[in-house]
């Protein structure tokens, strides 16, 4: 085969590959498509995965992370106490929400209704910085580090997503509670909220 014919074959194959990569992927099906995929693909002991995509004032952000359940259960949880404690104050959560919504300098943040004095604002900013939830940029602007945006939203969703969504008059995301055998728990079907023993 001459060089010209080989190049033509390569170009044809390349065009087919490019076309295949542009083909739409099969959309997820059902309310629990992520859970179903995880059941099939997870490690034997299970896996916790979180992911998200957000369009914010600072840009578009996506994040995905997963850990085997065994690693999570054997890890020293006390090591994350400081990071979680920084989120345990209502004013700090309001500061983070404001920063994610584009209020990034101290002048903007000082106008939040709940903030008292400038000293109180700087105290809360320092606590959030120390725990890694905020970073200071140029000219004293604040930002939630990109690697912390989706995890922060996941923590808020896990802690009260249904409550937060209900305040806006909307039903929250899909949830499914499983019993110890991987079957839907009695009285805790899709959308029913957490099951209590």
TrEMBL record:
Biased composition (Gly residues): 188-197
Entry-linked CDD domains: HTH_ARSR
Transmembrane spans: none
InterPro entries linked to this entry: ArsR-like_HTH, WH-like_DNA-bd_sf, WH_DNA-bd_sf
Residues in coiled coil: none
Region (Disordered), start-end ranges: 166-197
Protein's name according to its UniProt entry: Helix-turn-helix domain protein
Record organism: Meiothermus hypogaeus
